[in-house]
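Quick start: what a row looks like.
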Amino acid sequence: MALTRLDQLYRQVILDHSSHPHHHGTLEDATNQVEMNNPTCGDVIELQLNLADNRIEAIRFSGSGCTISTASASMMTDVVLGKTPKEALALVDQFSLLVQGKEPGNLDDLGDAAILSGVVKFPARIRCATLAWKGLEKALAITNEIKMNERD
């Protein structure tokens, strides 16, 4: 079955984020960090962020993961940088809906991560795609910057 041009473009964006992930590495002055793993496929991601003035001032991730996990982490770091914890958690919720095949609202809010909507066709890959996003949610909950039940 041949890939359409759009499918090829989506695949290339995913491969680019996986091969050359954005915000990859470690933060010396992280205010929040969490390590997440996906025992199903062995993905391990350490997520670090620096919160200042109620914004995600810096964010990095490291570890080892599959193409989908790494690409999703890269895309997630791009979209949440500069956001408040509340805004970032709203994006986590949108992404979760997206990979479940539900209507997430404005896809533009998710940036390149909107491309991962096709993961719904591969249930085993949903955990790969959501690992970094769940890590962000956990990292933000640790700080008491925002209570999990304060979401809109």
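That is the whole record. Confidence is low (pLDDT under 50) at residues 145-152. Strands lie at 32-38, 43-52, 55-64.
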